[in-house]
C-alpha cells in the first residue's frame, strides 16, 4: 500500500507557484490576488476559507476575505460579485459554498466573470473543460489529476469508477479522466445514488481506479474493490467526536490498495493547491503572460 500524500504534492506545487510569482514581482508586476466571499458562519466553510487564505500567502498571493451575514439577499450578493468582476486588482474570486437557502447558488456562480472563476464552476469554464478546451478546471477534480500525475499513477487505458455525480466533484472528474487530457484517456463509469447496488459492486470490483465522493463515512468497504486498486477518497465527514474521516473504511481497505489517499491530508489539500494553480493562470491571462 502506498499513500497518495496530498500534503507533499500540494507543498511541491505551491513552492513552484511561489517561485513563478516572485519572478513576476521581480519583473515589476503586482502579486496575484484572490478574493474570497464567505456568507454566514458555517463551521466547515470557515475552516476551508482559512486554509485557502493561508495558502494564498504561501503562494505569494494577496487575498482578501469578504464576510457577509447569513441574512444577505441574493440581490446584495449579486451586486457584490459585479463589483468584484469589475475590480482590476482581483484576478480570481471564490464564493464559498454552501450558501443560505434564500440564495440560488447556480445564479451566483453564473454571475461570476468566467475569467475570474477560479473554482471552474461557471458553465463557460465547465463547458470548455468538457470540450477539452483551455479553461479553469473544477478545483477538486483538477487536484485529483495533479495528485495522480505527481505520483505517476497510470491512468490512460485504465478502468475508472466514480461514485457520486455532484457538479463540483463526481461529474467533472469523470469527464476529465475520460478526456484526451495529459492525465486522462481512462475508461470511466459514473455511478450515483440511483445506480443499483449490484451494478455498483460489479463496476467497483473490476475497477483499476475508484474515486468516491458521496459524503458517507465508511461507504467503501474491502469487498467492493479488487487487490491493487487505486482509491481516491474525496469525502470529508465530521464524526460526532470531532474526527474527520473520508468515505472509505481506511483501515480495512488500505491493505488491498496499490495507492490510496488519506483523509485528512489527501484530496482536500489538493483542492486548495489546484485553486492556486487556477489563480496563477487567471493572473497570467490578465497580464498576458501565458
Ligand atoms: P454531494 O454531497 O452533492 O452528493 C453526493 C453524491 O453521492 C450524489 O451525487 C449522490 O448521487 C451520490 N450518492 C449518495 N449515496 C450514494 C450511494 N448509496 N451510491 C452511489 N452514489 C451515492 O457530493 P459532493 O459535493 O461531491 O460531496 C461528496 C463528499 O465530498 C462530501 O463528504 C464532501 O464534504 C466532500 N468534498 C470534499 C472536497 C475536498 O476537497 N476533499 C471537495 C468537495 C466535496
Automatic annotation (TrEMBL):
InterPro entries: Aminoacid_DH-like_N_sf, NAD(P)-bd_dom_sf, THF_DH/CycHdrlase, THF_DH/CycHdrlase_cat_dom, THF_DH/CycHdrlase_CS, THF_DH/CycHdrlase_NAD-bd_dom. It catalyses: (6R)-5,10-methylene-5,6,7,8-tetrahydrofolate + NADP(+) = (6R)-5,10-methenyltetrahydrofolate + NADPH; (6R)-5,10-methenyltetrahydrofolate + H2O = (6R)-10-formyltetrahydrofolate + H(+). GO terms for molecular function: methenyltetrahydrofolate cyclohydrolase activity; methylenetetrahydrofolate dehydrogenase (NADP+) activity. CDD domains: NAD_bind_m-THF_DH_Cyclohyd (cd01080). Keywords: Amino-acid biosynthesis, Histidine biosynthesis, Hydrolase, Methionine biosynthesis, Multifunctional enzyme, NADP, One-carbon metabolism, Oxidoreductase, Purine biosynthesis. Catalyzes the oxidation of 5,10-methylenetetrahydrofolate to 5,10-methenyltetrahydrofolate and then the hydrolysis of 5,10-methenyltetrahydrofolate to 10-formyltetrahydrofolate. This is Bifunctional protein FolD.
Amino acid at each position: 500500500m502506498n499513500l497518495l500524500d496530498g500534503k507533499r504534492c500540494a507543498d511541491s506545487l505551491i513552492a513552484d507557484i511561489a517561485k513563478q510569482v516572485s519572478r513576476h514581482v521581480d519583473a515589476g508586476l503586482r502579486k496575484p490576488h484572490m478574493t474570497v466571499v464567505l456568507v454566514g458562519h458555517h463551521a466547515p466553510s470557515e475552516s476551508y476559507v482559512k486554509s485557502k487564505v493561508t495558502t494564498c500567502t504561501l503562494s505569494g498571493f494577496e487575498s482578501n476575505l469578504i464576510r457577509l451575514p447569513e441574512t444577505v439577499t441574493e440581490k446584495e450578493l449579486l451586486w457584490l460579485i459585479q463589483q468584484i468582476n469589475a475590480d482590476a486588482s482581483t484576478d480570481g474570486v471564490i464564493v464559498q459554498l454552501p450558501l443560505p437557502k434564500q440564495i440560488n447558488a447556480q445564479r451566483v456562480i453564473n454571475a461570476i466573470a468566467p475569467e475570474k472563476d477560479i473554482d471552474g464552476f461557471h458553465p463557460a469554464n465547465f463547458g470548455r473543460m468538457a470540450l477539452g478546451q483551455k479553461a479553469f478546471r473544477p478545483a477538486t477534480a483538477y487536484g485529483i489529476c495533479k495528485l495522480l500525475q505527481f505520483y505517476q499513477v497510470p491512468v490512460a487505458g485504465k478502468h475508472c469508477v466514480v461514485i457520486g455525480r455532484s457538479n463540483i466533484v463526481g461529474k467533472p472528474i469523470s469527464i476529465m479522466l475520460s478526456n484526451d487530457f495529459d492525465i486522462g484517456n481512462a475508461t470511466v463509469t459514473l455511478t450515483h445514488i440511483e445506480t443499483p447496488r449490484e451494478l455498483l459492486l460489479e463496476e467497483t470490483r473490476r475497477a483499476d481506479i475508484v474515486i468516491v465522493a458521496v459524503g458517507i463515512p465508511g461507504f467503501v468497504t474491502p469487498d467492493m474493490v479488487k487487490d491493487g486498486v487505486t482509491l481516491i477518497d474525496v469525502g470529508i465527514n465530521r464524526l460526532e467526536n470531532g474526527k474527520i474521516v473520508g468515505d472509505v473504511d481506511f483501515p480495512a481497505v488500505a491493505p488491498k490498495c496499490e495507492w490510496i489517499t488519506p483523509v485528512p491530508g489527501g484530496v482536500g489539500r489538493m483542492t486548495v493547491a489546484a485553486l492556486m494553480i487556477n489563480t496563477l493562470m487567471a493572473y497570467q491571462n490578465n497580464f498576458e503572460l501565458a
